[in-house]
Amino acid sequence: MLNLFSSFSKDMGIDLGTANTLVHMAGKGIIIREPSVVAVDVNTKTVLAVGAAAKRMLGRTPSNIMVIRPLKDGVIADFDITQTMLKYFIRKAIPDKSFVRPRIVIGVPSGVTAVEKRAVIDAAMQAGAREAYLIEEPLAAALGAGLSMQGTQESMLVDIGGGTTEVAILSPKGIVASQTIRIAGDEMDEAIVQYIKRRFNLLIGLRTAEEIKMEIGTALDVNEPAYKLVSGRDLLCGLPKTIKINQNQVREAIAEQLATIVEVVKTTLEKIPPELVAGIMDRGIVMTGGTALLRNFDRLIMRATGMTVIVSEDALSCVAMGTGIALAHLDRLSKSSMLKGHK
Fold first, then answer.
1. Shortest CA distance to 87 belongs to which of 41, 115, 122?
2. Which of 266, 294, 296, 319 could be disulfide-bonded to 15 (CB atoms 3.0-4.6 Å)?
3. What domains lie within the chain, and their CATH numbers?
4. DSSP 3-state helix, strand, coil percentages of the chain (rounded to 5)?
């Protein structure tokens, strides 16, 4: 009978990110990759769209429709909307009316409080999970990046997402040292908005700022910078206006956020137990997360630390892939300190 129920398994791992939510289903891999965005009619409290459909509405809706990101800095800012979003993704992952509710592993920042962890588990249970477990994002990212949690090797990981940056020293038994800061891709987008406002007297939206970062963003100045034409509203006359911004200007816009992340990497390195230093120096630093894909970010950290820095092959998916690996070893990991959950 156990095998019969196992064949109907819909177990899934979820990277519940500030910017994007990824869903990994057992035996299928990553099946959903959508923005963590919900559109709501503020008058009726009705949810109008979730995910990619909601993001397309950003900046294009009447005053009665709000496009909300229910997670802020990696944690739940709006419980009800997060629960609705989780239900949407779970039902999208399981379109048929399965009578076996899924077990779910969710990646969360290592710096979240006990109250925040409880909120994530409650949201998952109320969204339809049979069992819900949490795994800290650095551990999930390490698993997804192919770093072994077995044997004797220690490693260092820098996971930079939309809402948080996680820097961790990992051993086979868990996290040896870590720091979490709520500065990452979202803060860079806001910095680009403010820079263009100050320098060009042009008002742009966060969606445009994100496009600028992704298309021409860089962590180091380049000799022959590429440029992008950017349209917005002229703050002096109120009319539409188009300006040209180049890569080095984008680097200048996000300099403060880059410097803060580099400093956290350096201070975490200072916390490494002496007996682990040689091994980690040999293996270098692994970068994961969507913001790790920013041009020259690895070179910036390499210059600051003197260590080899490797960007994971599929940096954006590492946490989601790691939750899937955790699902496959759920019994073992749930008995350790690596998973916290509710049955």
1. 122
2. 319
3. 2-140+318-342 (3.30.420.40), 144-183+257-315 (3.30.420.40), 185-255 (3.90.640.10)
4. 40, 30, 30
DSSP assignments along 43-107, one per residue = TTTEEEEETHHHHTTTT-S-TTEEEE--EETTEES-HHHHHHHHHHHHHHH--S--SSPPEEEEE
The DSSP letter of residue 110 is T
Chain centre to alpha carbon of residue 216: 20
Tell me the sheet residues that pair with 165. 160, 181
Written as six digits, the tokens of 90 are: 């779970």
pLDDT higher than 50, residue 221? yes
188: tokens are 């860079």
In angstroms, the CA 184 to CA 294 distance is 11
Distance CA 2, CA 239 (A): 66
The pTM assigned to this predicted structure is: 0.87
> How far out from the chain centre does Cα 330 lie?
22
Output the CA–CA distances (angstroms, integers) from residue 169 to 159, 187, 266, 289, 309, in the order listed.
12, 24, 12, 16, 14
How far apart, in whole angstroms, are the C-alpha atoms of residue 42 and residue 211? Answer: 28
Distance in angstroms (rounded) separating the CA atoms of residues 143 and 265? 20
Gap between the Cα atoms of 126 and 83, Å rounded = 7
The answer, yes or no, to whether residue 191 has pLDDT greater than 80, is yes
Rounded Cα distance between 99 and 97, Å, is 6
Average pLDDT, stretch 164-190? 89
Query: Which amino acid, residue 274?
Result: P
Chain-centroid distance, C-alpha 265: 18
Write the single-letter amino acid at 58: L
Count Cβ atoms within 10 A of the Cβ of residue 137 and give its class: 0-12 exposed, 13-18 middle, 19 or more buried: buried
Judged by average pLDDT, the poorest of 99-103, 125-129, 134-138, 241-245 is 99-103
Distance between CA atoms of residues 323 and 328, nearest Å: 9
Other beta carbons within 10 Å of 133: 24
